[in-house]
Amino acid sequence: MTKPIRLIAIAVLTISCMGPTAVAQASGPAADTDDATLVTDTTARLNGEVDPNGDTTTAWFEYGTTTSYGSSSGSLPFSMRAPVFHVLRNLTPGTVYHFRLRAVNVRGSAAGTDHTFTTTGTAPVAPAPAVPAPAPALPGTPAPTVLTPATPEPVQGESVVVAPTRGTVLVKAPGGGFVPLTAGDSIPVGSVVDTRAGAITLTSSVGSTTQTGSFRGGMFEVRQTPSGDGMTDIVLRGGDFSGCKRARSAAAGKKAPTRRLWSTDSGGRFRTHGRNSVATVRGTAWVTTETCAGTRTTVTQGAVSVRDLHRRKTVLVRAGGSYLAR
After folding, report:
1. What are phi and psi of 121, to 5 degrees?
2. 38: burial class by Cβ within 10 Å (0-12, 13-18, 19+)?
3. pLDDT tens for each residue of 94-122
4. Most exposed of 183, 198, 242, 262 (fewest Cβ within 10 Å)?
5. How many CB atoms lie within 10 A of CB 146?
């Protein structure tokens, strides 16, 4: 009987020792800094990942030529673990930059480890003055250095810049969840933007230039290829079409629309994708409405080229007209 008694005593002692470590403790956010990518002589993409640990968290990048950083990117809120990135522009060639991801919520703050990257090219050399500058006659106070966060810029096939103009706008990056868009910032291609309660401007890159369109009242995914003419595809999302049947009568078109998106553009390369048609704009204002009856494109200004996916034909719709692709 001695051995069983000893075994029971050991088991009780082990459970007692493990008890304190099994208690979950609430903690603040986590911020992980990843290596920079797409580094050129004047640009770089900063990468990281944020984990809010259960509380809405604001995250941003700090960067500069020393570990004092001095500059920061625009911040975005996060409600779940998600990747974070920001594209820097107008950097100095041949220069070492430091950066890290920071995150803050009601439980505390976190800073990722310091990472560095070196821009390509040769650093500019300031010419030596021909004559030494004379010392000031009177001591003066040096002007303060003002650090301004870099303005986000789009990268063709990589990211677009969206800025809310009114109401509440939500954004979901690939692999993440919906978070409020409180200020203009770059988001990766493949993100879903919800403007059903707000409106945005969307700027995408076309080679060395940019194009801007306005969108409101709907949910859509942003797509763009890294090469080619820079066409930006706006693919409608949301809505439940599971109840639609091919044999449904024409009266189905009288029902409230399942989804709708208002769009305006000024000479850019945008096209909207519905279930039954694709509309390519020519500097215009148009509305895409989808019901069980089909996809209707209504033009209020300019002209839109509508490709009917089922009938395999293209129709030019001018201001005041509309086309229904059944």
Report:
1. 90, -170
2. middle
3. 999 999 999 999 888 899 999 999 999 88
4. 242
5. 5
Joined tokens for residue 287: 């509305």
| Residue 135 confidence class, pLDDT cut points 50, 70, 90 | low
The CA-atom distances, in angstroms, between 269 and each of 231, 255, 279 are 5, 32, 11
Task: Check residue 240 and give its pLDDT.
Answer: 78
pLDDT per residue as tens digits for the range 151-176: 788 899 999 999 888 899 999 988 88
252 Cβ neighbours under 8 A, 6+ residues apart: 244, 291, 292, 293
Cα–Cα distance for residue pair 238/220, rounded to 1 Å = 8
Q: pLDDT (tens digit, 9 = 90+) per residue, 138-147?
A: 666 566 555 5
DSSP string, 283-302: S-EEEEEEETTEEEEEEEES
Residue 295 · residue 324 · CB < 8 Å: yes
- Cα of first residue to Cα of last residue in the chain, in angstroms, is 84
Residue 194's identity, in one-letter code, is D
Inter-CA distances, 252 with 59, 77, 168, 290, 297, Å: 46, 41, 31, 11, 17
Q: How far apart are CA 225 and CA 233, in angstroms?
A: 9
B/e letters for 241-277, b = 16+ CB within 10 Å, e = fewer, are eeeeeeeeeeeebeeebbbbbbbbbeebbbbbbbbbb
Across the range 244-250, mean pLDDT stands at 54
Q: In the numeric block, which tokens belong to residue 160?
A: 């677009």
**Which amino acid type is present at position 322?**
S
The C-alpha atoms of residue 218 and residue 139 are separated, in whole angstroms, by 61
Residues 312-319 have a mean pLDDT of: 91
Residue-wise DSSP of 42-56: S-EEEEEEEE-TTS-
